Amino acid sequence: MSTSFELLGAQGGRDENGIASVTVPYFAQTIDEVFSVGAATYLGLPQVSRTFQANEDGTFTVQVTYDGGDSSSMPGREKPTYSLNSSFEEEPIEAHPNINDIVTKYGGTWKDGRVTFPSKMPDEKKDTGGLSNAGTTGDSEQKPNPMCGVEKYKKLSVQWSVTYAATVIPGSVLAAVGRVISNPPGSAPQVAGRTKWLVMPPTASKRGNVAEITENYFLLDEGTATEIYKLGSIS
Asked: How many CB atoms within 10 Å of residue 25?
């Protein structure tokens, strides 16, 4: 006959997506009971995991975790939560959207698809006539070129995520992946000149009797060729 029973000290909560988690301590008389103590469900939530620890008297305390929810507690896709992840990433200077202007101003030269810049700024007087250069001493009066040695630049990377809970993973969650849309769900951030969002692969994890789903959207560069990705929409 089992001598296990629930102990005081249950704790838990429910997040903004409606997914509840409760951890309940149980007493187990022997090691043989540590994987069997505890109700199959607690407050309507199914078991998802457990841990146990031996006590000094040879008994065990078992922590059983219950996760999940029901449709009445989950706002779902209609009221998801949003998150923004932004950072600076290094990109080759050749990929800069204003590379042609930069090359012209700082005297860059192209070779085998790469741009290099001289140590000194181009002589701005050399095209204004012979008299304008009178008295100069060549490179000694030219300003240092701030682009000399520059091979990369910092580009703003932006990802917008939409998270919600559902009783099942929607069959349409992959339908728009790899396509470009103009307006992801929610009040996505605006970056001047960049209006194309690439639908990225979503993630989903099982939380008891429900699934937590995150849809991801990546803000493309201003000059991304329209032929690279297909236009799409989300439902």
From this structure: 18
3-state secondary structure of 206: strand
Residue 2 pLDDT grade (very low, low, confident, very high; cuts 50, 70, 90)? low
pLDDT tens digits for range 131-149:
444 444 454 578 999 999 9
Nearest CA to 164 out of 235, 74, 85 is that of 74
Other CB atoms closer than 10 Å to residue 80's CB: what's the count? 20
151 three-state secondary structure: coil
Strands, E, within 29-138: which ranges?
41-42, 45-54, 60-68, 81-92, 109-111, 114-116
What DSSP assignment string belongs to 19-36? -EEEEEEEEESSGGGTTT
The DSSP H or E segment spanning 105 is helix 99-106
